[in-house]
């Protein structure tokens, strides 16, 4: 029952301005309030669950306990506005502006090229700003830690860290050729004919940071600190928020509302209500109750009020650890180690330690530590107080505890450890930073005085049951035993039995989780053995072989360093000619200030409505009925739209094999059935969730394997064959067969799909603002559905917050539905998908299965290859045939194979349709190629780099599709990479390291890439441009490409600037639209700079020809003089340009022609270190040499290389889409789907652009750069495989083994076979139904 209370006024400050809200709704987040109510769109919605940091803002408040003003970063997407009473909020708009001045935090990020699409940028700016408000001279490690809760999909993180390194007191980087000795990276290039630079930005240009000039804390809030706390109540549409004034009031409220949720940080309840459709009518906010926020020391340990934030817990424990003897603080050190990797800084700043306990998550990072340490919990209610020791009876079931409904958790006492008592905690996750645990544990042992005989022991695990559990039987058996090898063996046998999992266990990874319980104990055993030897000063250290010591080391990663080398512009090039110079992204300054406008940032139109999609919950089923009656009764409901509302065609899709709305059958989970239109986004989504769909289920096909068994393919397979494959196998010394599975990948652009449709009221005209890479296709899809000609539909694209191929085709079905809603209601309609919807509906990179048979000679020379590619296309064809085509063209990677047959099958399954993704099938194909190449090296007993070098193409060779390779620079890239990476020297060092280490192994690999540049569909290789010159001399430039962060607009301005001979400051690009440049291809295939650059050049030449008479008559005149003269003479100052790529076209039937205009080449060398016990890996170093021709903009090109590499790093080592056997996607947000974070990049990350090799086939001798570098991250994958091989050798296993992609911790650990894995054998396939399947 909702309490009858009056609603209070909510008072807080935003960017120094007072906000008084009289109708505060507890369900409204700060993010929504900022964007919708205050018109501050700089703070972005990236995920809605606190996992990406795009919504980061700074909160400032006076802390009564510490008696000072606190500044801390938070996720605005989770913070309820009701939690902000008497606080100050600072957003990105509040610290600097292009209209006034940029704050140093903003300026340095922009000028260091740390912003590409710019969508994550405001959050990164605010994380850094908050750090500097607390510490104006941070250490580099503190800067890195500040970004643990921020993600970026574009940059690869290096330029962000490089720019912000200038704030660090210990910052250092490339010397910029100031060093005089030969160790300087730039001196090593002295033989090059062209000068080289490593300076992408000049720190001397940065304005200094002056902490005294920051905005002050609002005096009104400072004065209110002496006002007694009073109870506050805020009533929303469905929820009442009560903030009690003291503990007694809190207890009375909890007794009255037993089901009420206590909320401090809203990091759990906020997500449950938003994403799990849960409703809590009463929320009690105890964050300001002194008894719940205090910290006090006792004889037994340290007590924390249950509402203390995790950041506060960490600060207190860090201080105590420095003050007390180490033996007393072992539990504290374990808590700190877990907090290192606990969520992001924004979450730790608000999440309460009590909340972490009471949510009772079975994969809690802290509960195993608290359980194993015997921490004491104090509960209080109106009936009194009680204290219990946390033990295995506390958790009574999944997310349940023994706490009574009227009780609240008052405090947690974390105990000191005693002498001869040892404690450790371990956690393994998919990603090191900001990730939930796969398995986590706390381990405690107490020895009898003066001995190494176990007196007491607690081993607690999370992730091994529905609750946090104690290994009671194991511990009982080990008490009284000596801490020696026999105990270790006994413990492993006992744990293997006690901690076993059902093969169908939720979360999957059963074998891995099982093994981790033993691995963690082994680490604990060695750690204790080490400490015992120090404490007892006995011979025990002799029992720890030197090569085992590394198993006891905690995860540590050095601060990153990097070098970027590029060719300087020729001597004498005009300063106004920016081609070849590292020009800042044209929108960077706007992006760092939150002023860059993305689709959902547009102000709301009058009478605007919102749309929410209704989607299928079944992968394959007949639609029996759709009941919208309950939805119609929901507040704000306007209408339901479905197939019946379409005036034109419901059939859609690139190959007309899809529908706008499902009619009779649904063919995937996420298939769009209808849409709810309502007055707000929240009302639309709530109504959509209560639409009831009745299904008659059909049998789905989910995996590639199922498709092969049932012969479920789209059309006949495609094949390319050259030479005589059978004869090649006859001539081969060895023939080898194998297969590899390459997992799919979610695009995870930070800006989810968004569209706004505005009906114009006459002639069927409609204007759409869409986040799309393909405005022409969006126009066509909408026109077909509405039944109007293309010329009635205008599609506009200002910019996108990332695309990567994901907004090439799949977004256009979605934008069609928004247009239909606008058509039906005759009002503007907006829809921005939530992250979970976007991930569910839009598909991603195609999973591939490669099966190969390869023949080769004893020296490793390949003589024959027969390879078959299978791709999981999903429920429609979309671009899957083109993806398969490119995969077949790249089946050779960079290797000459005289006899080859490649065949491709596109599998039809009941998954959301997979689509374009950076690389477009080639990364999968090339990984398959490198897989058999590495197997050849192992079989021949030869170094992999020698076998690869032996098989590389050479200048003038023909590919397997009979295209001659001209301007083949790969051999140069290879040699330069070998040299710059010091490959051979480091390989010897790695061999020595591996000889000395048993449980840490290093690996190294050098991998080439050859990437064809052009659309393989010839008609798409065209582009148009429109250039207007105004009478003041300013130029408005429009072309067919869209800006998604890749710097296309910046490069096009540089091209026009050189072509016209005017400064870039005179040229502006506003947007891409179908009513300026029609019939455009998608911005894809890495060709947009080539195509649009040449079209712009063509238009500029037309204008120059028209201006030539006026330039000739007044050669010393200015640009403005010539323009004015032409205007007066009535000469057109507007020109179109057009370009089509010459000489391309290919026939599969004849295997002849040129599918590509030219190729981009690159080589990468990477070194990794794996933890054989846990599957963790560290990327130690990467060196890349990339041929980009003559770079149009080295900063943008290097940024594309680094960003593509890190995205590929995710593809090959980290990102895993997990589906149920029924086709339901589990991984629908950053909580479960992990893209690379700041800590995942290589510690040393060097990029060099190949010099002195202009490309005659593209604008100003440049080359495409967006996609080609992505595959180079396979060097990480094969370095990992190299390290695993060494680990397996120590277990007596040599020869070939299969490693599928991605090389996750699970796959790495399971491949490092040892005595522990042998105790945890997997269940027999087919004897159980797995939690997830590989699609």
TrEMBL record:
It catalyses: hypoxanthine + NAD(+) + H2O = xanthine + NADH + H(+); xanthine + O2 + H2O = urate + H2O2; xanthine + NAD(+) + H2O = urate + NADH + H(+). It is found in: Peroxisome; Secreted. Mo-molybdopterin binds at residues 773, 804, 918, 1085. GO terms for molecular function: 2 iron, 2 sulfur cluster binding; FAD binding; iron ion binding; molybdenum ion binding; molybdopterin cofactor binding; xanthine dehydrogenase activity; xanthine oxidase activity. It comes from Geotrypetes seraphini. Binds 1 Mo-molybdopterin (Mo-MPT) cofactor per subunit. It comes from the Eukaryota. Keywords: 2Fe-2S, Disulfide bond, FAD, Flavoprotein, Iron, Iron-sulfur, Metal-binding, Molybdenum, NAD, Oxidoreductase, Peroxisome, Secreted. This is Xanthine dehydrogenase/oxidase. The gene is XDH.
